[in-house]
Specification:
- With 321 residues, the protein is mainly α.
- The chain is built from twelve helices and two strands; from the N terminus they run αββααααααααααα.
- It has a two-stranded antiparallel ribbon with strand order 1-2.
């Protein structure tokens, strides 16, 4: 019964948001960095946060620290979608949400490890935030990642209530119905992409904590490695080229495919999701997960380097300064 109620509620909430967004003209208007060419309803990814809230309210305010953290993150991100806020305020909120959500999990580790993890988690939030510019990317990729955690919870280690994962997946499917299209009806906005980033981190940390002392903790990043590799390699590329790594751009591999090579949005989104799915299946099946993760990481670095090397030589790729 819960699944039926949750599905109906999430669909109703998303449709209600469309009405509100249209009334108040909450739209994403294309600019020189956009990968779309018409105004689209913005902020529909608020359904990810609201699905967390729905689960929490129906399960006795479950995951209280996480709920407070994602509420603050969603609130600031939604306001930023409507009227841009100072970058320091967005970063402060992200750090606060990460600290609040994961303090109990990482407070006992060495100080340098603590700092590295906080910076890494905050970086993941921002890398995840870039997905929303390509139709279907956030929905398809997140469905694979969250679905993988659902599989692991059911068949490997019960690390979280499966109803929580199911609620998130329903929200992803509802959002994806309107976003995974040639002409998307809505975009997630920062409120959705940043919230989904924290949700994925939350699931990842809960899963890692279900295997204390396994020696394979770092290898768990394999579950989101396709997008992390693209995000962090793009930062490294811009840094080595002497560009401002904090400035807005559209130089990720998937953005280059869409904007410079004119590959259809949905092909790129499906390709990234399929690549992550294959990697996740391989991770589940292999015995030496640390070695597997190293091999996957090296292959992604090689693929990324070859893509831009041959793309630049062909003259089809024109980096944004």
């Amino acid at each position: 019964m819960y699944y039926i109620i949750a599905t109906v509620a999430i669909i109703a909430i998303e449709l209600l948001y469309f009405v509100i967004a249209k009334h108040f003209q909450i739209v994403d208007r294309p600019n020189e960095r956009s990968s779309h060419h018409r105004a689209v309803l913005l902020g529909a990814g608020i359904i990810f946060y609201l699905s967390v809230l729905f689960y929490s309210l129906t399960h006795g305010l479950a995951f209280s620290n996480f709920l407070i953290g994602i509420t603050a993150l969603a609130a600031v991100s939604f306001v930023d979608d409507i009227r841009p806020l100072p970058s320091w305020l967005r970063l402060f909120t992200q750090l606060a949400a990460v600290l609040l959500t994961f303090w109990a999990d990482i407070s006992a580790i060495a100080p340098w490890q603590f700092v590295v993890l906080i910076v890494f988690f905050t970086g993941v939030l921002n890398v995840y935030n870039f997905m929303d510019g390509i139709n279907g990317m956030l929905a398809a990729y997140s469905l694979v990642v969250v679905g993988t955690f659902g599989y692991l919870d059911l068949f490997e280690s019960r690390f979280i209530d499966i109803e929580f994962i199911a609620t998130i997946m329903v929200a992803i499917l509802v959002f994806g119905f309107f976003n995974f299209r040639t002409k998307a009806r809505c975009f997630s906005g920062d409120v959705g992409s940043i919230s989904m980033g924290l949700i994925v981190l939350f699931l990842l940390v809960r899963y890692v904590n279900s295997f204390p002392g396994s020696g394979q903790n770092v290898s768990r990043i394999c579950f989101v490695i396709v997008f992390l590799a693209d995000g962090f390699l793009t930062i490294a590329k811009r840094f080595l080229a002497g560009r401002n790594i904090f400035a807005a751009h559209r130089e990720h591999a998937y953005e280059t495919m869409v904007n410079d090579l004119q590959v259809p949005h949905l092909y790129v989104s499906a390709g990234y999701a399929a690549a992550q799915l294959v990697i996740n299946i391989g991770y589940i099946l292999v015995a030496d997960k640390n070695f597997y993760t190293i091999v996957v990481a090296l292959l992604l670095v090689l693929a990324y380097g070859l893509f831009f090397f041959f793309g630049n030589r062909s003259g089809k790729i024109h980096p944004i300064q």
